[in-house]
Design a protein that fits this description.
The chain has 275 residues and is an alpha/beta fold. It has one domain: TIM Barrel, CATH 3.20.20.100. Helices cover 40% and strands 15% of the residues. Keywords: NADP, Oxidoreductase.
């Protein structure tokens, strides 16, 4: 288990990835994104997560360059959007993202959603990018077990990461166990359920015990479950607070109590019906 923001996990291809990240969804491209990325890096974040859909890849690249931290010390993820599926389309989409980021390579490239009938062909394009060294690792996002099993049947390279919605109201225990068995690193988007869990009595009580906020309790629970959280914020103080989770540990009992809050309730779309 990671013990600091700079600690890493080793993916199934041997690449190391920071165990805690910063997401930029809904940050405005340009100065807002650049400043928040730069702030996150100053607070020792080393994983930055963006996507073509977010339309702020330029700002991410600017923030990393302005941070003064060498490019190779920052792990950059971006994602292919739903209208970019297909072999040739995916290669073109990646080229566009790389140009917007103004980088020579991306650390992790993900299929954002499993578009039925298309994601296997798209995966072949990601494998080509991986073989050519333009990406250090390839993975998926919002894939259920049956999507992963379909991919396995045709893939030459197993996904290194599956980034999914994950929080105490959506613990996805079966998917988490499957990913662990298959040595696929699970990553959590919307780990705080868009702020909807921050007044829960249990999380408030546990936070009071440790002098922590409910958000910090949730992020600690996520890390202790070996899932990589990528909380997002446009507020520097929140960016700093989110990362201050490495000076306490939840007990086994507290971990179980938090997991028992599961309602199988999503704040975002269901991958089976979204596309």
């Amino acid at each position: 288990m990671i013990k600091s923001l700079k600690d890493t996990v080793t993916l199934n291809n041997g690449v190391t990835m920071p165990g805690f990240g910063f997401g930029v969804y809904k940050l405005e491209n340009g100065r807002e994104t650049a400043e928040m990325v730069k702030t996150a890096i100053q607070y020792s974040y080393r994983l930055i997560d963006t996507a073509a859909l977010y339309e702020n890849e330029e700002g991410v690249g600017e923030g990393i360059r302005e941070s003064g931290v060498p490019r190779e010390e920052v792990f950059v993820t971006t994602k292919l959007w739903n209208d970019q599926h297909g072999y040739d389309n995916a290669l073109k989409a990646f080229d566009e993202s790389l140009k917007k980021l103004n980088m020579d390579y991306v650390d992790l490239y993900l299929i954002h959603w499993p578009v039925t009938g298309k994601f296997i062909e798209t995966w072949k394009a990601l494998e080509k990018l991986y073989d050519e060294g333009l990406v250090r690792a390839i993975g998926v996002s919002n894939f259920h077990i049956h999507h992963l099993e379909s991919l396995f049947a045709d893939a030459n390279v197993k996904p290194a990461v599956n980034q999914v919605e994950y929080h105490p109201h959506l613990t996805q225990e079966n998917l988490r166990a499957f990913c662990q068995k298959e040595n696929i690193q699970m990553e959590a988007w919307s780990p705080l359920k868009k702020g909807r869990l921050l007044d829960h009595p249990l999380l408030l009580d546990i936070g009071k015990k440790y002098g922590k906020s409910p958000a910090q309790v949730i992020l600690r629970w996520t890390v202790q479950n070996s899932v990589i959280p990528i909380p997002k914020s446009s507020k520097p103080e929140r960016i700093r607070e989110n990362a201050a989770i490495f000076d306490f540990s939840l007990t086994d009992g507290e971990m179980k109590e938090i997991s028992a809050l599961n309602l199988n309730e999503r704040s975002g779309p269901d991958p089976d019906t979204f596309v």
